[in-house]
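Notebook p. 47: complex prediction with zinc ion.
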Amino acid sequence: MASSTTCDFCGTTVPGDPPLTWTAAVEGDRLRRFCDSCSREHLRAMEAKLDSDFW
Ligand SMILES: [Zn+2]
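Predicted complex, structure tokens below:
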């Protein structure tokens, strides 16, 4: 059976399991996946958010 993985940010879909370059993040009860390029953006955003929490 073919499964695919979709980026929750830009909607990019790849067949099969997500590549190692993809990122998985749990937000509440949902598992979200981000492709390699969105992972970079997401990481930056997460870091920015974390930083603002500490301020
Ligand atoms: Zn993406």
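Notes: The first helix runs from residue 36 to 54. The longest strand covers residues 23-27.
Next step: compare against the earlier run before touching the bench.
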